[in-house]
Amino acid sequence: MQNGSRDPEHRQRAADATADLATEAAIEGIDDVEGGLDEIAAADELAAISEMTAEAGAADVEQGAAMLDVSNEIADASVLLRQMSAEDVTRGMDLAAMSGQLAVIGDLVQAGGMPTLAAALRQISARLHLVATGDLLQSRSATALADALDLTSRQAAGLGANEANEGLVRLAMAREMANVSDALAAAGADRLAEGLAGVYAADDLAAEAAALRRPRPQPTPAQPQDATPQPTPSRRATPKRTPKKR
């Protein structure tokens, strides 16, 4: 009787302990499930930001390369202007020399008693002088323009390099964020799986606690058997029938 009275109490204590374990497992499992889902959501957001950063970085690199191309084209134009300026200087100096020579010849012709020819030579010398001066001034303007183009080319090259560098930095940041996103998504998936396992374990523990609270079925008493032997019916021999002769 004493053991029988203690057995329900023991089962009740075991059921209560199992129920407590089930509650703790359920709380931890739900917490892990929610945390895993939050980590996966954060990983998705970080992946989206990584893609946007990568796109912006690629655009910066492309824009920087385009600006560098423009800088090279401006530098080529500057070189061409300097070449033209050098040609203008050479031509202007040649014309200036010819102008001076014609002026001297005109003076000699004037001294030789040919004033008309001398006047014509002086006019040609004056025209050549004007052309030579114009070429030299044009050369000076071309040089100034070439200097301005050089400055513009350097500025464009600096801007293009900065833009390309910013793009490369953004691409590196995008790769780093993508790596973090992958790691966060993997950790979230693992935590989600652990949480689901904890919830399933809590269900099993709750079922076990409920089983412990159910009363045990009482055994049915055995029916007493009658020891008096029952008579067995006797079998009488059946006579065989012989067929009648006809």
Question: How do the helices and strands line up, and which of them pair or pack?
Answer:
Layout: H1 2-111, H2 115-213
Helix pairs in contact: 1-2
Would you write up a description of this structure?
- With 246 residues, the chain is an all-alpha fold.
- The protein has one domain: Orthogonal Bundle (Helix Hairpins), CATH 1.10.287.
- It has helices at residues 2-111, 115-213.
- The radius of gyration is 56 Å and the shape is rod-shaped.
- Helix 1 (2-111) runs antiparallel to helix 2.
- The two termini are 86 Å apart.
Q: Please tell me how large the radius of gyration is.
A: 56 Å
Can you tell me the CATH superfamily? Methyl-accepting chemotaxis protein
- Report the total helices: 2
Spell the H/E element sequence: HH
Q: Regions with pLDDT < 50 over 5+ consecutive residues? A: 1-5, 234-246
**Whole-number total of structural domains:** 1
Q: How many extended strands?
A: 0
Largest sheet: none
Distance between the termini: 86 Å
